[in-house]
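Session log. Operator J.P. requested a structure for one protein chain; no other inputs attached. Running the standard single-chain path with token output.
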Amino acid sequence: MSFSNQPIHTEGLPEVQTIPFKPIHPDYLKVLRISWFLFFLVVLGVLVTIFVLSKKLQNPMAISIATGIYLLLLIATVIIGTGSFKRKQYAVREKDILYKTGWIFQNLHMVPFNRLQHCVVNMGPIERKFGLATLSLYTAASEGKDITIQGLPQTEAEQLKELVIQQIQALHTDENI
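Structure written below.
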């Protein structure tokens, strides 16, 4: 038996830019903004409680620093989160699912159907209000989710789940033949 590991010429590789990606639903930005608002409201409540209960922190300098850091984090979350939201896109091909995320740190995730074990559709209370859902895809090789596509219309998430299940079953049927 001889070992062979020949190089592959990269000129013939498929172009990722030619894949028609689909953006997530625009209402998901509303879900994100409501989530951010609730999070920062809780943080504000905790900060106010700490400043009211602590005698050492009741000076104008400490309050100014805490307010500045709070506002900086709030603004950064909104700017980075909104920029990242605009880049969230997915594509379904005959053999895999791709998901693009990130604004500053951009990621392209690809999971072949033959690696998927199962998938789950989740809806939080805010997502449910807007008729949106999250599709989580799992492989055997990872400890957690491989891809989580948030901001899908509920019916589309259910359809994608059914497609993934059909693909997984078809692959297992082909393996047993």
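Operator note: The chain has a mean pLDDT of 89.
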